Amino acid sequence: MTTRRELLKAGALASAAAFLPRAAFADAAPSTVFAPGVGRWRSFQIVTTVEILKPEGRVEAWLPVASFSNPDWFKPGDNSWTTNATSAKLVRDPRSGADMLHLVFAEGEKAPRVELTSRATTRDWSVDLAAPGKPAPLSSDERMRNIAATDLIPTDGIVKATSDKITAGKAGEVEKVRAIFEWIVETTYRNAATRGCGIGDIAALLKSGDLGGKCADLNALFVGLVRAAGIPARDVYGLRVVPSRFGYKSLGANSEIVTKAQHCRAEVFLSDFGWVPMDPADVRKVMLEEPPGKLAIDDPKVAAARKALFGAWEGNWFAYNTAHDVALPGFDGPRLGFLMYPQAVSAGGLLDCLDPDTFKYVIRASEIAV
Q: Residues 271, 213: one domain?
């Protein structure tokens, strides 16, 4: 039972929506081909429950919600929440465009808590790169935003030099982007020891000479190298929500608990095709994690993923935003490289979003019928 201090925000959710059976998380039958096409629309719900176990002073929290939209494959839905915060509202960081639920708890609140429910609709998406068309061009502002440097993704120095070397002798956008994609696949590796999804500091990565990391590192490197070549690109930060229907264990969420299923994808804007899905980091994930593990680069599973993820991806994933250098509204601390995890601050400063001992959260995902 909720108390009088609890706030309830209804986001016009359809109460008659029926949940699909839990069997959605059963083992997916292996497919002979990993080839996402243009699929049917599917609706998903994620429920994020956050508890601050050791609050100090006044606690504030910020939970990402879907601000990303691409009518080809992703449509954000409504949000609702219950909480014992004294203030809870949807806010946007105007610079980065990231939307989030901002909560302020009373000083002395012994058990700060919130449950956020978010919905979205998505589908498999594929672009035929053998069939150029005439997509609407990006506005000048959108183009500049997607070729600009960020705090962790510079486009000069070692990043520009590396991009120039990779694309030397390549003609046209598709050929240049493909060269960078293949370079990421062949040169980097997924480092299982990397915390969370990585940091995304691509200049440090290149300078170190050790090109290991996870999706927020490897796909950020891909995006930075593409931007340094003068081609718009963006990271898309989100969450895997259901298994891969192609049978790839490493490319889906295999439980309704998706607390650690965050994943960063990438899109590249090509003049003759519009926004095109790309995910070289997931190729490296398949190599490391797909059973039986540590697959060779020429393994059929890897080859299929490598081919598919240059121009297509599966719609078993919930997008949050494309934001970099995120300022948390009401927080005067440093900006975040990206916003893909719940965040909270207490008297001791920003909590570690990857430390469940002090900052506990659980995310549950389900496919819904609407």
A: yes
Same domain, 71 and 185: no
Mean pLDDT by runs of 10 across the 370 residues of the chain is 41 39 44 80 97 94 96 96 98 95 96 97 97 96 97 98 98 97 98 97 98 98 98 98 95 95 98 98 98 96 96 96 96 95 95 90 92
Q: Residues of 32-45 as b/e, b for ≥16 C-beta within 10 angstroms?
A: eebebeebeebbbb
- 362 burial class (0-12, 13-18, 19+ CB within 10 angstroms)? middle
Of 97, 148, 143, 149, the C-alpha closest to 327 is 97
Residue 97 to residue 195: CA distance in whole angstroms: 26
CA distance 212 to 182: 16
> Among 5, 299, 308, 261, which residue's Cα sits nearest to residue 129?
308
Residue 362 CA from chain centroid, whole number? 17
Q: Which pTM does this prediction carry?
A: 0.92
Pair (117, 70) in one structural domain: yes
Three-state DSSP at 16 gives coil
Extract the tokens encoding 144.
């500049």
- Largest distance between two CA atoms of the chain: 67
Using CA atoms, how far apart are residues 302 and 358, in angstroms rounded to an integer? Answer: 38
| Residue-level pLDDT at 21 | 40
Burial of 215 (0-12, 13-18, 19+ CB in 10 A): buried
Task: Domain of residue 313: give its range.
Answer: 125-236+262-317
Q: What is the CATH number of the domain that holds 228?
A: 3.10.620.30
Within a domain: residue 252? no
DSSP letters, 265-300, are EEEEEETTTEEEEE-HHHHHHHHHHSTTSS--TTSH
In a domain, 52, yes or no: yes
Both tokens of 266, joined, read: 């990438």
Examine the domain organization and report whether 173 and 308 are in the same domain.
Answer: yes
CA angle 282–287–289, rounded 5-degree value = 85
Question: 157: how many CB neighbours lie within 10 A of its CB?
Answer: 13
Residue with tokens 């919600």: 65
